[in-house]
Design brief:
208 residues; mainly alpha; Hypothetical protein af1432; globular
Length: 208
């Protein structure tokens, strides 16, 4: 593929060793990739979702390291795209292998692979809370008409929608994709500086 900066990015083969992961590419791509394959009440990008996850972590008083990991948890989708969970289930292990390998490479390049290993449960939790919030506010899901979502509705699930978030606020409705791109970058560099300044690098990689 060719990134927004004009770089060739290899998705398989020996070429993957030459790939350059650029956070500006990541922000640009994610800001134009829609969640839920576009089945939302308004355009809703992976970049906005990522920022929501970081906001949720901050709301619970998590430090900048966890917030940064939440922001970057879908960074690999800048190159793989965002496949819906039902389609992932159809494709099965083949997709799981491809997504995992790309996620690992992107996280190593951004210096957060160790952090994801350490904070995997926290990041996954905020991803689910974001999903529950998005389902309630942005999709046409109707519990009386539609099937349950096992990842959210299984007994014992603790992922509840965040009532303090309004994903249909006027500010969000009026935001352009470039606003989410810029906010993603601003948040990334701000959190990165905080992580370095507070010596919260461990258990993040030293290359962050």
């Amino acid at each position: 593929m060719i990134t927004q900066a004009g770089r060739e990015h290899y998705l398989s083969g020996c070429g993957v060793m030459m790939n350059e992961i650029d956070i500006h590419d990541v922000a640009w791509h994610l800001a134009q990739i829609n969640r839920f394959t576009g089945a939302c009440k308004r355009p809703y990008s992976v970049a906005e979702h990522s920022l929501l996850c970081a906001d949720l972590a901050k709301r619970d008083d998590n430090g900048p390291a966890v917030q940064l990991l939440c922001l970057l948890h879908d960074a690999h989708e800048a190159y793989t795209g965002d496949m819906s969970s039902p389609m992932k289930n159809v494709v099965g292990l083949a997709w799981a292998h491809v997504e995992h390998s790309h996620a690992e490479r992107v996280r190593r390049a951004l210096g957060v692979a160790t952090g994801f290993a350490a904070y995997k449960r926290q990041v996954f939790h905020y991803d689910l809370v974001a999903l529950a919030t998005e389902r309630r506010q942005l999709t046409r899901f109707d519990a009386d008409r539609n099937r349950e979502w096992p990842i959210l509705d299984a007994p014992g699930s603790s992922a509840q929608p965040a009532d303090w978030v309004n994903l249909n606020s006027l500010e969000r409705l009026n935001a352009r994709w470039t606003d989410w791109r810029d906010e993603f970058l601003t948040r990334y560099f701000d959190l990165q500086r905080q992580v370095q300044a507070t010596a919260a690098l461990a258990p993040l990689d030293n290359t962050i």
